[in-house]
Amino acid sequence: MQIVNFKDLGRMEYQRAWDYQEALLKENVRIKTEAGEETDTTHYLLFVEHPPVYTLGKSGHIENVLIGEETMREKGIQFFRSNRGGDITYHGPGQLVGYPILDLEKFYTDIGKYLRNLEEVAIRVLSDYGITAGRSPGETGVWIEPEVNGRARKIMAIGVRCSRWITMHGFALNVNTDLSYFGNIVPCGIQDKQVTSIERELGRAVSMEEVKEKWKTRFAEVFGVTLAEDRQA
Prior knowledge:
Blueprint: E1 2-11, H1 14-35, E2 43-49, E3 53-56, H2 69-75, E4 78-81, E5 88-91, E6 95-101, H3 111-128, E7 134-136, E8 139-144, E9 153-163, E10 166-174, E11 194-195, H4 198-202, H5 208-223, E12 225-229
Helix pairs in contact: 3-5
């Protein structure tokens, strides 16, 4: 069974968290390059909440950003072009962002399976709250009522990068997120579909710490790993 080092980074600027991920990925790539097949790479699962920020994936379309950078500055929102997959999304307080840094060669060399497993974790976490969620064909992420015209709403976005089968970036689950920020973008480049949160679905705020614990439990279950607490960032 693989060991995954868990770190909760708390509230952290997007660029700082990105740089930290890059450092962990590069160290794992260095180990693989030097060691050949026998590798001593380290797995991580990072949790973080970002101040308000829009991030555009490497294949994203800038026209899906509906406000200019000056307006963003006025609203106190940062903007980054990221090297992850996917289009435009929002990160902010009340949203659980998770960055798994995994060596997939120790699991399976299948990015599609990795994405489906991240979705499965969220589906099980939401089930713990009595929320029925699932997948929308051809659209990465986790949805509620994806098959119902006009009612499909996204509750978790996914965008990843992979180098030498080492992953980075990850998922963003809307817990108690201020959803009004999504009004300034076309979330994930998908027109005519809504965004939601656990808070909106339940009609009440939920404990972020409780959601984190549920995610850790379900992540270990789906990926078949043991999480090792590491509070040093």
